Structure formats: structure tokens, C-alpha cells
Amino acid sequence: MKTTQTFSLLIWINKSKIVDDEAPIFARITIDGKRAELSLKKRIDPDFWIIKTGYASTKHPEAITINNYINQVKSELFKIYTQMQMFDEFITAEAIKLRYTGVKEEKRTILQVFDYHNEQMKKMVGIDVVHATMVKFKTIHSKVESFIRYQYKKSDYYLEELSHQFISNFEYYLKTEEHIQHNTTMKYIQNLKKITNLAVRNDWLDKNPFSNFKCTFKKVERHVLTMEELRAVESKKMDMLRLQQVKDLFVFSCYTGLAYIDVMRLTPDNLCVGIDGEQWIFTERQKTGERVRVPLLAQAKAILQKYKNNPDIVNAGGLLPKLSNQKLNAYLKEIATICKINKNLTFHLARHTFATTVTLANGVPMETVSKLLGHSSIKTTQIYAKVIEKKVSEDMGLLKAKLNQKKKMKKVS
């Protein structure tokens, strides 16, 4: 029960709507500063209205009838408010008004807003929205639905019931029941806040209860291959066809910076002649829809040439073998063991390697790398610069150690 809620009722006349010298009588319900106004279907000459008391003057010929009716309305409104308190209902001025007038209040739920949002987004796929974004919001819808069933034993949750505790419980659920990492949990919460922001903008929710919830992200160290490690993978011959194909796909990404889904979507139509007359890849990032133009380095060209006449790949209309991301990453762990690389080798690590070891470390400007990666903001690319700075720091540390060692040896001699 909401003990801190404020409730007030004012009976007044609207002089701006005077007709035939009479103004309509209204009741104004106020709950926590939010108003709802209700016409009493009665009119009175303003000269016979006492503003201070909210009643008709006794001098009015129908004063008793009007004032009794006002008392009846006030009594009914107070009764509705008291009943809603007793049943611990979510009370708003509009809810009291609708209860009094007999109009059924439309209560929206969080999953209904999700459905509304996702349906709108579905129509925008291919226009202003990429399919991956649609999938992302379907996923968060599913997570919220599962959470509501687990936490509250309900199939849905009213917007009016949302609170800061709801989001805290959701965070706890994602981490403990779904075993989702902190940063991914924060991304889910950010997407949920977008849904509640939509509800606020459409006046379905007075205030976003998550507005004071701060999403915090932990710094994650991005692993990359050194040039020595990349060469080790490139030069290693794999005995099994599946491992050889996975190695080729991984190395291709290391020299193009293309993400898994973008490599899988490549067709001969993506091979174009660039401004320099050389072979380029022209494509769009599936994740963001950003255009990507990548000049092909010799290593990437060699891999494309290798599969150029492969009948299975040609018949499928692709450029390279197609494997699921799950299988690719599983096989990459085998390759890491074979090549004696003590790192968690994933396909996405190839994109990081392209950004750092292949480009930035070799003097390619940040702005160019950002374009090659298809980043919508250079701030995203600047994350990789920190990896380069760390490598510089480590190298300088080794240099200092060597110089100090030589200094010590000189003193001894």
C-alpha cells in the first residue's frame, strides 16, 4: 500500500465555457501532483458559486440539489480511492476518474510495448534498421519474459508496476540464472530502457523508473595475435580438411577485418575494382548497415584464389566455405593447440588482429582503419589504439631492462 501518496479533490467551475450565463461544474482529482478532470454534468451561474468552499451559494434556488449532488460525487470518488488503497492497486488520478465513469482503464504491459516496438522495427528492416538489430530486440523480449515468469510467476507485467527494484532484480536474474557476463547484462538493460523510454514518450508511463539506473561497463582486454603468432597459423599445414578451411577463413578475416557474418555473406558480386584499379571487397556490415570498402591484401587474395573453382562453393554462389560460427570457434581451439598459441582463439579475434597487428601497428592511420572496419564512430576504433599503446609500453619495458642490464655489465667490467 502506498502510504506516502497524496490525494486531493477540488470542485470548481470552468468560466471559460460559459453558455447562457452558466458555467459547467468540474471535479479535479490530484494524485501526487498528476491531475484528472471530471465533468459533473451540472451548470451554474458563476455569481452563485462560492470558490472557497466549492459549493453553490444558498441563495441559488437549486442550491440544496446541487450541493447534495456534489457531496455524492465527492463521497463516491473518496470511496474509490479508499478501495484502491485497500486492494493495493496502482492509483492514479486518471484511474479514479475511469473507475467512477465506468470506463475500463487500458493497462499496458511491458511485453505489449515490446511487441509494439518490435512490430514497428520489423517494418523498418532494410530501410533504417538491420536484421541483426531486430534479432537483438527479440532476444531481450525473450529474456524479460523469462524473468517475469521466474521472478513474479506472471506471464506479463504492468507498466505501472515497474520500479527500480524490477531492473535490479532483472540484472541479478541475468547474472545468476542465465549466467550472462556483466557487460552483456548491461547491454540487455540498456535495450530494456529504450523500451520504457518509448512508453514514456507515448504517454503510457509517467516516468521511466530506470532513469536513475546507471549502466556500468567493465574494461575488457581485447586479445589479438602478434605477427609471429599470425605467421605461425598461416604457415601451419592442417591434415584435416575442416581445420584447413577454418584456418583459411580465420586468416582471411585477419587480413580483411570482416566479421564472421560478413565473410559468410560474401558473393562474387562483392568483388569489385577499386579506385586504384586493384581488387577490393565492397559490402555492408550486417550488424550496423555501414558500408565497407576493403582493398584486398595479397594474403586474402591467395585464399580467394584457392577456393575460386571449388564446385560446392561456386554452386552455392559464395566465395569461401560456409561453417557455423559455433563450429568455427570450436575448431579454432584445436588450431590454437596445434600452433601452440596460448590464447582463446575465436573468429572475432581475427577482426581485432586486423585492426591492431595488421593495420595500426604498421602505421595505417586511425581514420583509415575505422573506415576499413565499418565503424560508425572513430571512438570505437580508438579502443584498438589502447592495445597498440600497451604493446609499445611492453616493448619499451623490455628495452629499458636490456639497457639497464648493459649498464650493470659495464660497471662490473
Q: How far apart are the first and last residues' alpha carbons, in Å?
A: 85 Å
CATH overall fold name of the largest domain:
hpI Integrase, Chain A
Counted up, domains total 3
Identify low-pLDDT runs: none
Give the helix/strand class: mainly alpha
**Average of pLDDT:** 87
CA radius of gyration: 34 Å
The biggest sheet amounts to: 3 strands, antiparallel
Binned strand content: 5-15%
**Spatial ordering of strands, largest sheet:** 1-2-3
CATH class bucket of the largest domain: Mainly Alpha
Question: Number of DSSP strands?
Answer: 8
Look at the structure and name the CATH superfamily of the largest domain: Intergrase catalytic core
Q: Overall 3D geometry?
A: elongated
CATH architecture descriptor name of the largest domain: Orthogonal Bundle
Task: Give helix % range.
Answer: 40-55%
- Helix and strand element order: EEEEEHHHHHHHHHEEEHHHHHH
Given the structure, what is the number of helices? 15
Question: Explain this structure to me?
Answer:
It is a single chain. The protein has about 425 residues and is mainly α. The chain folds into three domains: about 5-100, no CATH class; about 110-200; about 225-395, hpI Integrase, Chain A (Orthogonal Bundle). The protein contains 15 helices and eight strands. It has helices spanning about 65-85, 95-100, 110-125, 130-150, 165-175, 180-200, 225-235, 240-255, 260-265, 300-305, 310-315, 325-340, 345-360, 365-375, 380-410; strands spanning about 5-15, 25-30, 35-45, 50, 55, 270-275, 280-285, 290-295. The strands form three sheets. The chain has a three-stranded antiparallel beta sheet with strand order 1-2-3, covered by helices on one side. A three-stranded antiparallel beta sheet has the order 6-7-8. Strands 4-5 form a two-stranded antiparallel ribbon. A hairpin with a 6-residue loop joins strand 7 and strand 8. Helix 3 packs across helix 6 and helix 13 (about 345-360) crosses helix 15 (about 380-410). It is elongated. The mean pLDDT is about 85.
